[in-house]
């Protein structure tokens, strides 16, 4: 069974490339973007079920990208990555419609669990529609 | 005075110097302040008091002296009067004899003897009597000596009696070798014939009159003439006809009183009074101490009163100043401790910011290492068995463990720096402690550490933050565990410190710590656990307790144990808007 479609957005290239590869090893379909602008461009051609989004990025911040994603017709679920101790930022993101947030450095298993949960809700929402 | 005030002012400024954190505090400052305060207060109280005492003293002395001396003057006048009456009686007797009888009658020694005896019976003191004609010849004489035919015309008194009509001589020994005086009265008939009746009076009677004055044993009274020659014996100042050793200055006929120094340096009060009709002066000499005894008593009472007041004032000033300086010192210490706390908080907050920055920067590469290593692990796990596979896996596990340790450190750093969001609720501290112990149950069972709870059942609930307090007690207990090497005991007790604070004491019998360690345990990054401590646990603990409005004390003795006492306010200041 093919895993969920995921867009990873983080300015740390090395971090998302490794993470993407690990997720691909677990049968997820993964695309990456190194900044907010690239992510928005990517979203025009690739419709993910889940966007894993770093909050702190140069240019468009995670919150900016989240706000824009909320205006998209497909509305993928968004999992935010925050620095430790920025719990409030994560909570703020959830208030703006994020599915959940994880604190960096992340545990791969916790992330996969969240992704599956988020993808599940998206699938359920699609079915309702 | 001005100088003192300035130095006091300067000292005050010194004491208030901001940024003085009280390191190497000098008690000398306080001693100096105290000394200056005492000096100023003593001066401003004692000087007016002394001035007042001196003025009072002088006024009293003036008033009392005149009051005390008045009776001496009275006694002198009265006694002089007795002498004068004595002399006047004798003189008038002689006068009567001279005028009541004719020359011939007086020249008749038998008739004269009868008169003499009659006079002697009437008035004591008569020694002899005689008639002297105008040429100065002793015409008749009645008395114990043979003076008949004696020539007096060349003698001074004879001239004087011719001029004045009467004469009272000074005391002299004369032919008789005992002190006496001579009274002489001239009588002149209508025809111009004149004669002089001359009588001798024994001055022993003077001594009786002086004795009748009832003077004290150390007082003296005597007669002198205008040349200062003693006319009676004096107890202390010479024999009759000697020069009197006390100087008297008879300026007027009025009696006078003077204070003089006697021949032996003694302080004397001398009263003297001149006789009206003779050259005698009655002198009364008393020791000043005796006359002014009442004044001296009063003076010493005044003196003791003054000394007593001064002593009381000085004592009160010393006590008050001591208390005042102690209060200033306490206030300074409180201020200094507030400064230290502020400094500590500043240090914490700047270190916190730094730590947060460092943690963020490290977190990103840490995340990369984590993911790259994770990827390696994933890849190897998905490969068939190959040489060194286990070796690779174990290396990867080591890297992941190291990453995990780094993660713990950065999390702690961030936790330390994180702004504490306090969530106040009503808490039962006894229960909270039991909850915290619940987290650690496994560990203390494993480590064979006995936990003894000594909780006050009536401990009131307090307003505080559950999560933060859990962290506080966890941190302290973790420290206690670390201090206990193998077996040991931890005693946790709760109590009311006062109406506002409760106290939680956590006492272990672990290794304890040195004084230097104890002073630094709340500093960020200070640790004794070389291998695994971040040095943040107790610093965070301290920050939380302070944030919650509480305080923490540490008592420790090496090889005996450590006690942490956490004071928490019953009502959280933070809960109030």
Outline of the structure:
The complex is a heterodimer of chains A (129) and B (577). In chain A, 47% of the residues lie in helices and 19% in strands.
Please tell me about this protein's structure.
The complex is a heterodimer of chains A (129) and B (577). Chain A has helices at residues 13-25, 36-45, 62-69, 87-95, 108-128, and strands spanning 5-9, 29-33, 50-54, 77-82, 100-103. Chain A is of the alpha/beta class and 129 residues long. Chain A has one domain (5-128): Rossmann fold, CATH 3.40.50. In chain A, strands 2-1-3-4-5 form a five-stranded parallel sheet, with helices on both faces. In chain A, helix 2 (36-45) packs parallel to helix 3. The model of chain A has no long low-confidence stretch (mean pLDDT 86). Chain B is an alpha+beta fold and 577 residues long. Chain B has four domains: 2-63 and 295-345, no CATH class; 101-206, 2-Layer Sandwich (Beta-Lactamase), CATH 3.30.450; 215-291, PAS domain (Beta-Lactamase), CATH 3.30.450; 422-577, Heat Shock Protein 90, CATH 3.30.565. Chain B contains 13 helices and 16 strands. In chain B, the strands form four sheets. A five-stranded antiparallel sheet of chain B has the order 2-1-5-4-3, with helices on both faces. In chain B, strands 11-13-14-16-15 form a five-stranded mixed sheet, with helices on one face. Chain B has a four-stranded antiparallel sheet with strand order 6-9-8-7. In chain B, helix 2 runs antiparallel to helix 8 and helix 11 runs antiparallel to helix 13. The longest helix of chain B has 89 residues, at 293-381. The relative contact order of chain B is 0.07. Chain A binds chain B through residues 12, 14-15, 18-19, 21-22, 25, 83-85, 104-106, 108, and chain B through 356, 359-360, 363-364, 366-368, 370-372, 374-375, 378-379, 382, 403, 407, 410-411, 414-415, 417-418.
